[in-house]
From TrEMBL:
Region (Disordered): 1-129
PANTHER family linked: APPLE DOMAIN-CONTAINING PROTEIN, PROTEIN-COUPLED RECEPTOR GPR1, PUTATIVE-RELATED
Protein name: Uncharacterized protein
Top-level lineage group: Eukaryota
Length: 129
């Protein structure tokens, strides 16, 4: 049979093991919680960074597109205006030239007719004499 001393030692040993197990469990739980928190924080940071980068890229692309469109519109307008001006000038010049030529022809014809008439009259007069 066991002596009281032996029983006490056995009980103490049991208690020590139990306490050790509990302490180990608590320590494990605490370590697990801390690790989980750290992992969560790190993951959150990474996700935030990625989201920020992606959002920045999208915003940059959109801004670039808008700027490009606006610049294109302005350039198109300017080019259109310039082309219109040039076309108008050319058309005006051509029209002016044609009108001038036509007028010159008509004037020349009239002058020629008058001159011819006068010459004819004079010739007729001289012949009549």
């Amino acid at each position: 049979m066991k002596t009281d001393r032996q029983t006490d030692k056995t009980d103490e040993s049991k208690t020590d093991r139990q306490t050790d197990r509990q302490t180990d469990r608590q320590t494990d739980r605490q370590t697990d919680r801390q690790t989980d928190r750290q992992t969560d924080r790190q993951t959150d940071r990474q996700t935030d960074r990625q989201t920020d980068r992606q959002t920045d890229r999208q915003t940059d692309r959109q801004t670039d597109r808008q700027t490009d469109r606006q610049t294109d519109r302005q350039t198109d307008r300017q080019t259109d205006r310039q082309t219109d001006r040039q076309t108008d000038r050319q058309t005006d010049r051509q029209t002016d030239r044609q009108t001038d030529r036509q007028t010159d022809r008509q004037t020349d014809r009239q002058t020629d007719r008058q001159t011819d008439r006068q010459t004819d009259r004079q010739t007729d007069r001289q012949t009549d004499r």
